[in-house]
Design brief:
Blueprint (H helix, E strand, L loop, with lengths): L27 E14 L12 E14 L9 H12 L6 E2 H4 L7 H16 L7 E10 L2 E6 H6 L1
Parallel strand pairs: 1-3
Antiparallel strand pairs: 1-2, 2-4, 4-5
Helix pairs in contact: 1-3
Length: 155
């Protein structure tokens, strides 16, 4: 049977744990953050119901890898959120994607590459050798397109 423990002595830096102990390893690790947005679009040269104006609640998932810093972080989740909010979401959320994205057919396949390029550009020069590993863009809960680093850099 499992018991519950009440913490009586909260661990203190330099008293209970030393600063050099905060980073447990020196391995590359990937963190992931997920965002949702609502948008409308339609597809050109497509013979199906998506040729008509319609909307989706999209989900974008970003996988970012890097080496942990002196306190054990690759990148702060809040930093990923800031990049998303300021550089990507502003072009997507509650927008008509055919107007706000570069000239393209607004397929999930085209949009995921655009999202990849925007996040990759924002991460350039980030500490800890951060790099974008993948972006997954869900158009529905069961349908997504994915862009991976190896595909973006090697064709």
């Amino acid at each position: 049977m499992y018991g519950f423990t009440i913490v009586e002595n909260l661990q203190k830096i330099d008293e209970h744990i030393k600063r050099h102990e905060l980073n447990y390893h020196s391995k590359r690790v990937m963190v992931s953050k997920e965002f949702t947005f609502d948008a409308a679009h339609h597809l050109h040269c497509y013979d199906g119901k998506c040729k008509n104006l319609h909307g989706h609640t999209y989900t974008a998932v970003f996988g970012i890898s890097g080496y942990t810093d002196d306190i054990g972080l690759v990148i702060d989740f809040g930093d990923i959120k800031t990049i998303w909010k300021e550089q990507i979401e502003v072009h997507l959320d509650h927008r008509y994607l055919n107007d706000t994205l570069p000239d393209m057919n607004t397929t999930a396949e085209n949009m995921v590459v655009w999202c990849y390029e925007k996040m990759d550009e924002a991460l350039a020069g980030y500490p800890n050798s951060c790099r974008l590993e993948f972006v997954r863009l869900y158009e529905t809960p069961t349908s997504y397109a994915e862009a991976r680093r190896e595909w973006m850099t090697h064709g």
